[in-house]
Amino acid sequence: MAQKSCCIVGIPIQCGTHVNGCVMGPDSFRTANLAGVLTEQGASVFDLGNLEPGSHEPLEHENSNIRHLSEIVAWTKAIEAAAYEAISSYELPVFVGGDHSLSAGTVPGVTRHAQENNKEQFVLWLDAHPDFHNLTSTDSGNLHGTPVAYFSGQAGFDGYYPPLKHKVAEQNICMMGVRSIDAAEHSALAETNIQVLDMRYIDDHGFADPLGEFLQRVEKANGALHVSLDVDFLEPEIAPAVGTTVAGGATFREAHHVMEMLHESGLVTSLDLVELNPFLDDRGKTATLMVDLVASLMGRKILHRLPRRYG
Predict the structure, then answer these.
(1) Is 118 a member of any domain?
(2) Do residues 227 and 126 touch, judged by C-beta distance below 8 A?
(3) Which domain holds residue 242?
(4) Residue 274 is part of a domain; what is its CATH number?
């Protein structure tokens, strides 16, 4: 089997959230042996180090709740360029954060590459939150709650965020695991063609069938698939290291099943790992679980985790 070339891009951004600690996320993933696990699954791995934002000018917005707007804009520009370069050079770039505002750069970057290669971009959003605010609608002012609205081309970003070169079509976005959504996001999403599969839907139908249907659409379109995995997609008891814990998330087995299905599809072309806050972790258990999920995405089977029997 030919090796898949992977790169790791560290994005130590935490200005999209109000809880300090995500800045340590990239190095925590490294400490949890992300590169080694990718190598064990047959990948050739290149760690490109940590990205830094460019300089930024102060920006003012009528929404006085917004935090760190100028920093987020600078990061978004730098991340978009880095994501485009990474996916142009490697078969599977893995972007490790850092808070979820980084996806306002990673998704546009990989989408630019997809468009240049005449492919449709698809996004699987694994998150407790839809992150569908614009700059006016956010009450918290935390801009990790805006990336999906931005990269799908919604109104409310003009004159602040970088102009989108290519947006992701609404019908090509699937959210799974959502269980914390406010009224403004609910109303905005109701006007779109984005597929939102909340945990009540998952309770009734499970992950396998709706995910399988989405993957069939990606395959039929010969599309590129970006997966954005937020720690809070998971049940907090198994993944406590996140500043936005929401009860009722995916279990250990459900999460691995999702990753195994993604591997079997062979469709994933880029990956975000976000919102890991090592300051809130318990002896690295969340970082280790996230890296184990990447191993399943790359093809490791449950059987490989069983202890060897002797005698």
Answers:
(1) yes
(2) yes
(3) 4-304
(4) 3.40.800.10
Q: Residue 18 catalytic? A: no
Let me know if residue 91 belongs to a domain.
yes
| Mean pLDDT, the chain, integer | 95
Residue 53 lies in a domain: yes
CA angle 228, 84, 242 (to 5 degrees): 25
* pLDDT value for 308: 45
Helices (H) and strands (E) counted in the chain, each on its own, are: 10, 8
Q: Catalytic residue at 144?
A: yes
pTM: 0.95
- Told to judge if 226 belongs to the known catalytic residues of this protein, a careful annotator would answer no
CA–CA gap between residue 22 and residue 241 (Å, rounded): 9
The reply to whether 129 belongs to the active site is yes
Catalytic one of 185, 232, 272, 292 = 232
Catalytic residue among 131, 254, 272, 292: 131
User: Nearest Cα to 109, choosing from 87, 80, 152, 89?
Assistant: 80
Overall number of domains in the chain? 1
- Active-site residue (options: 99, 127, 272, 292): 127
Q: Is 127 a catalytic residue?
A: yes
- Inside any domain, residue 146: yes
Is 100 catalytic? The answer is yes
Q: Is 62 annotated as catalytic? A: no
| Active site (annotated) includes residue 56 | no
